């Protein structure tokens, strides 16, 4: 696998430059390989949550890659981590996740040299908004994916999500949450308000991607915890009704971040699912 000339390294973090396209300017994306020496192994590509980044995953992607025997590819979406920040006067559009799935992610794969044969063996591992983007990518490129695991994904807007995101805004502005998130993002206000503003935008309440799931044609595991305060089982049940062959994993505990709060149960479920298909 070749790395494009547009990529540079800084310690174990690399940066890829995506050329301007219609609707966006040039972007710099931070990314990281896990077990890059496993050149023959399939790639597990990780897509983070709405406030996530490479650093916020901590060691979980490596743990899962060890279980699965895969290479890992982790990146920070534009606006997060050390990738190009969102300009403070720019609001994410209602279809921002579709834009990430259909434009930004394919451009990044091109930039780092992940070609079509590699993509056909690739797995997406997406959390929260990253889970939604994974579903949208699987829908848009059904032949260029081996499978997907989506953890606490959103396919429509629930009131529990809006309430929790509104509470997060209060915490960000009145507690030390801003300082805590600042450890993981070069421009923490860009990261937080990009996510918070769009989810609290009244127009976003109509966002719904359930109909798009019908074109997914790869193995799919959807995971949801009972005690998630950002979404309910209705999310993955809607996935099962629309995406043919989707399998569900319902966890009794794990909150909105089972990879952190119920990692053993989650890892067991993912390993069993992938192993049956190996």
Report on this model:
This protein is an alpha/beta fold and 278 residues long. The chain has a single domain (8-277), classed as Alpha/Beta hydrolase fold, catalytic domain (Rossmann fold). 38% of the residues lie in helices and 17% in strands. The chain has helices at residues 54-57, 60-68, 96-111, 116-120, 129-140, 159-174, 177-181, 188-199, 234-242, 258-261, 263-277; strands spanning 8-10, 13-18, 27-34, 43-47, 71-75, 123-127, 147-151, 220-225, 247-251. A 9-stranded mixed sheet has the order 1-2-3-5-4-6-7-8-9, sandwiched between helices. Strand 2 (13-18) and strand 3 (27-34) form a beta hairpin. Helix 2 (60-68) runs parallel beside helix 11 (263-277), helix 3 (96-111) packs across helix 5 and helix 6 runs antiparallel to helix 8 (188-199). The longest helix has 16 residues, at 96-111. The protein is globular and about 50 Å long. Keywords: Hydrolase. One of its GO terms (molecular function) is hydrolase activity. It holds the Pfam family Abhydrolase_6.
Summarize the structure.
GO terms for molecular function: hydrolase activity. By secondary structure, this protein is of the alpha/beta class.
